[in-house]
Amino acid sequence: MKHIALHISLLISLLTLAACGSKVVIDDERTFEGNVWNRFSPEVFEIDLSNTDDYFNIDIAVSIDTARFRYDMLPLTVNLYSPGGEHRFFYADMPLKEKGRWKGEMTADGYRVVQRRVRPFFSFNGTGTHRIEIGQGTSQYDLEGVRSVRLYIENTKVDYDDL
What we know:
Blueprint: H1 2-20, E1 24-31, E2 36-38, E3 43-49, E4 55-64, E5 73-81, E6 87-95, E7 97-98, E8 101-102, E9 105-106, E10 112-122, E11 128-136, E12 142-144, E13 146-156
Antiparallel strand pairs: 1-13, 2-12, 3-11, 4-10, 4-13, 5-6, 5-11, 7-8, 9-10
């Protein structure tokens, strides 16, 4: 009986250590009904940060229906709102094609997924819940052919050799 309790205790300790070592802050995806992204409906993501001394890599991925999407590039708008009231804004262009060929990986259900790091070594100002809004920045009211947008943020260490 002691042997089983010891193994269970060890397993719980290992799982706790693995969870604490996770670098992923958010990995969340929003899907669009009918594969149509409305220009005036940005997707909202929230992250809870307890440490602002860290740096983060911010990646965005889009899933495209290549039969319906007509463009080589998808311009995105990114608004970041901190709990203290700070607002930051930037554009993030998602190049979808290179020399006429689609970039990214094909999924089993027939969509093309393109991912791009839009902000390396980013620092958030202030702890608490931050809101991130990602919108499509085209002139199209309803942009056809976009299945989903995914936000992926992870902790990173600044490597000055990479700068």
